[in-house]
Write a structure and sequence with these properties.
Number of helices: 17
CATH topology of the largest domain: Aspartate Aminotransferase, domain 2
Structural class: alpha/beta
Shape: globular
Largest sheet: 7 strands, mixed
Length: 439
Amino acid sequence: MTAISNAQSLDAYWMPFTANRQFKAAPRMLASAQGMYYTSDDGRRVLDGTAGLWCVNAGHGRREIADAVGEQLRTLDFAPSFQMGHPLAFRFAERLAEIAPGGLDRVFFTGSGSESVDTALKIALAYQRAIGQGTRTRFIGRERGYHGVGFGGISVGGLVNNRRVFTTLPGVDHLRHTHDLARNSFCEGLPQHGAELADDLERLVALHGAETIAAVIVEPVAGSTGVLLPPVGYLERLRKIATQHGILLIFDEVITGFGRLGTPFATEYFGVTPDIVTAAKGLTNGSLPMGAVFCGRHVHDALMHGPGNAIELFHGYTYSAHPVACAAGMATLDIYAREGLLTRGAELAAYWQAALLSLRDANHVIDIRTIGLVAGIELASRKDAPGARAYEAFVDCFERGLLIRVTGDIIALSPPLIVEREQIDTMVQMVREALARLD
């Protein structure tokens, strides 16, 4: 037990996505954070290899964000967003529109990535109805996709553990995932094989009829499932097929948005423009919960018809465009702009890739995938104990001063964008040593 867990009961807090009994028997507590490091409750420095949870892109403890939040709390702590507004919401939306992916400059604010996904799905339905395509009510997701934990998100998502216990929406189908170890392992850059998997959308059109499909949603890079990169030409092919059949294309950029790939959004990295993009995480540097949905004007404007006093979209949240979250977001954008963080990943990508690929001979490693400043290190699973090996590496690294993330037997790394080369070297060496200790 660590200091904090000795001082208080751990029973009341039901932790998310956590084996609660296992954790509370041997808790791992973070007490403070600054720059690239957490400090554990027993005083150890822990290098952040995951940007918190893919979100602290500008590093921890940014005074500018704290000051902006404090000032906003003193000025306007809350304002309703239904039939009312506050100036900061409009200024923040304008700032985001300036860097909007692919010119998708109409912004709907939410409270999280999960809310952004469910919002995007509802907007897609509303759009199709508005243009006289009301029979289009079906969504297409992808196997191994993660789109949050709302009922919409788990329905279009493709992670079985997130779906098996819960009811999912009817009328949802899935593309096959693109992971192909046999043909694409240890590739430098995007996988060369698998673009033809985008043709699954044609197959589903033939099965269901294009007139029933509202939208297809994918992560440009599937992060939560273990950093699966799109094969060369895959996203372009998906865009072409969707356009051909009048299907909206939604990119879930909750992870890839705000500089993770070395471009502001993955749309710029891949040169493919969807109709809708979901975002969250890096939007406020993880300091306050907030999400956003970026829509093309063709989507937005399709709903701006009828009587001027009619609500165009019956959807929203109590905390949409929360003034304090907007203040945090504005301060975050200022940091990104001043320090060039939205493109810094491109400067470090080659060094990052070379460092990570040096682990190809490490114990148990069967594949390594990198893009921008994100990496997935896939391990061979133990017989009858999938996930155990990576989890042990996660605990070992934390005890020795490095925070990593694991999903199944895949280690994911996505450090804050302020990371330095020496810190990359430290992460790689600590992972190598942890893997060497595993049986």
